[in-house]
Amino acid sequence: MNTKSTDLDRVRRFWNGEGRCFANLTTGKCRPRQDTSNEARVGLCREALAAQAQLPGPSLPAVFPDYGTVSMPRYWGGAVRVAEDSGLTFIEPAAQTIEEALALKPLPADDPGMDAAKALWLYQQVGCEWLRTPDMQGTLSTAGLVMNQEELFMAMVSQPELVHAFLARVCGHLIEVWRYLRREANVIGSIWPYTFVPADCGVVLTEDMMPLLSAELYREFGIPQLRRIQAALGGLHIHCCGRYGHHVANLKASGLRIRSLEFHYPYTTPEDLEPLADTTVFIPYIALDKQTRFKSVLEYYRYLLVETPAKYRYWITGLDESPDAIALLREIVG
Fold first, then answer.
1. Could you tell me which of 162, 172, 156, 145 has the C-alpha nearest to residue 76?
2. In this predicted model, what pLDDT tens digit does every residue of 18-57 receive, in sequence order?
3. Count of other CB atoms within 10 angstroms of residue 165
4. For the residues of 222-268, what is the DSSP string, one character each?
5. What does pTM read for this prediction?
6. Most Cβ neighbours (<10 Å): which of 1, 80, 162, 261?
7. Helix %, strand %, coil % for the chain, to 5?
């Protein structure tokens, strides 16, 4: 295995345009439930880091504080629940209307009961060099969990000025959380996807509201907040696992520095993303059960590397720990 410093240098060179494809393996072992206590997480995290160290290929082992998609909306209130069967968390809206949402006051970014502080405690206890942030939902995704999502959509049409004011507050708070984490730890990305993104290479966030909005509404309400996050924190690394091809033209025209963009075939395709291929790294995934073109994940990845134009650059993170996946990783990164 390469040394950490060598791997970090390779990561930065890739984000700066060197090479067509990067790939890494991430262990799926020793993952706690999202409601696991912080104390129990310490042992599980150490076991996961030990398992990660045994995998071939580039690796920057990091603390993985997955408390669920509720991490950012929790600052605004709302009751957090845990699904008994899956261990996944969800949150009740703290506000039903846009007026109620504007009356909310979030807890400070460093509040000791919130997930950023809990992640930093875990990071300090484990003594690892790197920290992934808790789930960093973007502005719209966070807003749609803080207040009733349907009411938020309707207010975009009936009360747009109030929605803009609320989104500005949500975005400002998210920026403060990111800055807090960066001050206290060596941040290497977020809990998803499994790319390595040092703070000087940008910021990772989720934009899963894109598939739910028209191109016109996302241009009005989504892109201005992305622009603000970029100005504060650097280039954007965006997760979205739905159908968002109708937003590509606006993303291209926005002038945003989108350093990477995750997509899930067949919902969004390489052809949909072509306008961004000159400037953006794509992070590919596939829903095998929603298509018939590819028989396996590895077949899909090989197709991307062989059949798509050379200007398409990829970071492949959806590799398991099987011999075939390890062989593909070595084929890609040597």
1. 145
2. 999 999 999 888 888 888 998 999 999 999 999 999 899 8
3. 13
4. THHHHHHHHHHH-SEEEE--S--GGGHHHHHHTT--EEEEEEEETTS
5. 0.95
6. 261
7. 45, 15, 40
